[in-house]
Amino acid sequence: MAKPDLMERVVNLCKRRGLIFPSSEIYGGFRSTWDYGPLGVLLKRNVKDAWWRSMVQLRDDIVGLDAAILMHPRVWEASGHVQAFTDPLVDCRNCKERFRADHLPESGACPNCGAEGSFTEARQFHLMFKTHVGPIEDDASIAYLRPETAQGIFVNFLNVQTTTRKKPPFGIAQIGKAFRNEITPGNFIFRTREFEVMEMEYFVPPEDGPRWYEYWCQERLRWFVDLGIPEEQLRLRPHDAEELSHYSAGTSDVEFSYPWGWGELEGIANRTDYDLKRQSEYSGQDLSYYDQDADRRYVPHVIEPALGSDRCMLAFLLAAYREEEVRGEKRTLLRLDPRLAPVAVAVLPLSRNERLNPVAHEVADLLRPRFMIDVDDAGSIGRRYRRQDEVGTPLCVTVDFETLDDRAVTVRDRDSMSQDRVPIDKLVEHLEELLPQ
Ligand code: GAP
C-alpha cells in the first residue's frame, strides 16, 4: 500500500471505529489535541500497561512514581527549560504561516504557499505553557505545565531512594501528561501540544553511565520488536553533537519508518549528573548518594529512555494495519499483538435468537472477569468477524445452535481465521493459553 494512503486509512479507521476523535470536534476541532474514544482508550491503556509491566513489574531494580504536573517554578529554572526549551521559529512573509526553522524542506520554499526566499530570520520560541497559580496574576504566581515528567523524578530522588532503600543502579519510572506549545503540531497523534510520556530515569555510578546507556538502547529496541513492530521498521540513530540537548552526553533515537519517512519514536539519553546537580544547586538540598560498601559519595549519572504513549500507539497502529483479500472480499485488519488489542475476546451469538442469547450472555459473564470482551449480535456473522478484525480483536467466540446440545463454542483466530471447537467449561483455560500476558 502506498505510504500516504496508509496514514489516511489508519486515521479514518481510528475515527470510524471510535479509537481517536479530533478534540472539541463540534467546534471545528482544536488541531493540536485529540480525544481517545472507547476503543482508543483501551489500546492506549494496554500500551502503557505493557511499558509499566516491562519496566516496573518484571524488574526488581525499578520503582514507580506519579508526581504532580504543576511544580515549583524553580524546578524549571534548575532544569534549564526556562532558559533553553525553545525551537527556532520563522514566518513566511507571503502566506504568514509559521514553521520550525529546523523542519523546513531543503529547497527553501515555503511548504504552505511555495514562495521562495520568503522566510523571516529565525527567532527562539518558548515551548513551555505558562499559567498562574492562585488568585493574583503576577510574576510571583507563574507556574508551568510540565514539558516532561523527568523533573518530577529528579526532585523526588531522595524521597524514593531513602524510602525504598534502593542502591544505584536503580530506576524510577513514571507515566503522565506533558505539554509543549509546539510550533507545528501535526501528523495526527505524532506531534501534539498535550501528550502522554512514559519516562524512566536510571541512576547509576558515574563510571557505569556509558555501559547502561548501551544497555537501555538495546533493551528499548527489543521491547518494540517483542510487541510486534518488525525489526526492519525500526532503527537506532545516535544524535550528532549539534543536535544534543543541553543536558546530554549522548542520545540515540529509536526511529520508526512512518509513512512520511524515518522519525523519532523514543529518545534514550545519557543525562549524566546534570539534573541532580542542578536541582541540588537550586534547592540547596544534597542529592548525592553515599555508597557504604565503597565508602564514597557521588552524584549518580542518569540514563533516560523516554517514549510518548500517543506516538508509540501510532507506530503500533501503522505497523499492524493490513488489507487482505479473502474469498474475493476485502478484509481490513489490525494485526496487533494480543497484549495491546483493545478487546481481547468478542462473544458472538450466531444470530439474534432467544435460545442463543442466554448462552451467549452466560459465556460473556464467564469471560468478563478475565478478559476485556465485547458482545456483538448485530448483522451477519461474517460482517461481525470483519468488524472485530478491523479493530484487532485476536479471538472471537461464537455461540451457535450446536452449543445448545454440546455445550461447546467455536473459537476463531483473527490472523489465520482458523476455528476450533472448545467446551465451555474449558474455555477460560483455552483462551488464557492463547492470550499470554
Ligand atoms: N525527558 C526527555 C524528553 O522529554 P523528548 O525526546 O523531548 O525527551 C520524549 O520526548 C518522547 O516524547 C519523544 O521521543 C516522543 O515519543 C514523545 N514526544 C515528544 N514531544 C511530543 C509531542 N509534541 N507530541 C507527542 N509526543 C511527543
Plain-language structure description:
The chain has helices at 3-16, 38-57, 73-79, 81-84, 150-154, 157-164, 209-226, 274-283, 309-320, 356-367, 381-390, 401-406, 427-434; strands at 20-22, 34-36, 62-64, 86-91, 98-100, 123-126, 130-132, 142-144, 170-179, 194-204, 234-238, 251-258, 261-272, 289-291, 296-298, 301-308, 321-326, 329-334, 345-349, 373-375, 395-399, 408-413, 419-423. The protein has 437 residues and is of the alpha+beta class. The strands form 7 sheets. A 7-stranded mixed β-sheet has the order 3-9-10-16-13-12-11, with helices on both faces. The longest helix is centred in the N-terminal third of the chain and has 20 residues, at 38-57. The two termini are 31 Å apart. The structure holds glycyl-adenosine-5'-phosphate. The site of glycyl-adenosine-5'-phosphate (GAP) has 19 residues, from β10, β13, β16 and α9.
